[in-house]
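User: quick one, fold this
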Amino acid sequence: MEKWSLMTLTVLLALTVRWTVSLGSYSGAGKPPLYGDYEAQRHWQEVTYNLPIRQWYFNTSDNNLLYWGLDYPPLTAYHSFLCAYIAKLINPDWVALHTSRGYESQPHKLFMRTTVFVADLLVYIPAVILYCFSLKETSTKKKASALCILLYPGLILIDHGHFQYPLSLGFALWGVLCLSCDWDLWGSVAFCLALNYKQMELYHSLPFFCYLLGKCFKKGLKGKGLALLIKIAGTVVVSFAVCWLPFCTDVAQIMQVLRRLFPIDRGLFEACMFSSPPPCSKLANVWCSLSVLIKIKNVVSPQTQLKISFAVTFLSLLPACIKLTVHPSLRGFRFALVSCALSFFLFSFQVHEKSILLVSVPVCLIINEIPFMATWFLLVSTFSMLPLLLKDGLLLPYAVTTLAFLSVCAASFSILEKTSAEDLQLKPFSLSLKGYVAWFKSFPKTVRSLFLLSMTLMGLLSLASAALSPPQRFPDLFPVAVSLVSCLHFLFFWVYFNIVILWDSKNIRSQKKMS
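Assistant:
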């Protein structure tokens, strides 16, 4: 009873923080003509409720795709329709065709915020709690993990501040939970739901695929392994068929949806005509960081950009995927989710700053294993979205939730004491370097110093971005500085996670137990 009562208090605290953040501003509030993501979600409700399904993704007189045209998979559209149905019962003006454009009122804001709150409460939070209970840890460590995950500021600020639904990440987390419980078919269904809610879940697709494929290989493709592979393939096909059924009336429908999901003609960077500063100046990935020195758009054609991006992304995630396929383990699966998602964020095509959340949630899942590095990464990931958060008027929630998260992690895991090679899962790597790198003995002190330097730099940049005006000659100075600093951090973390994966002998021992 005590265990459940403490977990209940954890959930209540997390819900209180979320609701408090939701009382503030949201994306595009009072900023016509396009407003922001809040208006995008409201507009999708307007479109899905008033127009037939065959028109949802097509440009028509009633559905101007240049004004927040629907560009997510079918489950997002169905969810928008469900919200619109409830909104219509409360106040038809909220989803009236054409006349509701840019609608803003306190009752409507309360309704929209509540829909996010309910989605969090029904999908994401239960998955976090059950995942933490499934960990082979002490009761105290499970509760500490749950508290830290639920208080991660990046997701709270984007979902309940900026405005976004946590459903795709919630479904993906249910997929991880099911695989952890050896429910491979249910895990496949959950991940299919995640992928059919947001196409960015492709960031997690290869670890799911490689882990399940490796598991089938180990069981033997002439026996149980083949049967499992057929079952998983059938489950995926049926799940996709159910989600896409209303759009399967003709090929033109399917192709139009796919064009909306993957608009490759826009070029390498996330196109956003209403962004200020420009999208590339506030995104902490490699291409946007390089564009500060080399204007890639002016040098390389869009098609060549796509090919280069694909090649670099594929090569960057290949080692982790091969290791997971050859030696499938749940531990390796969790770390591969982090590594592959980070590869996509750093090197792939049309990345949004919010996409770092696709890396952060898997990092949350390993916070009990590497609390120091996980906490550091989660703080950097929140900092990387600072230009977006400042634009939405979320400076105070950003400062308070970030400091609270750091305090909780420091108190729960004593993170500054967990910096040895063993604590950071680098013991096998350090042994392979023995005799070659003498400074590895001072590694804990070096890492702590880097962490404190990182915190200081991020704090100073946060203060400068909020309080100082940039020089007229360099109006994007602070967003560019934030993106460059964050990108350097992410490259460091990408190297670190891949070292942990490739030198980890625990994966092999775990895989042998599985087989």
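User: anything notable?
Assistant: Confidence is low (pLDDT under 50) at residues 271-278, 510-515.
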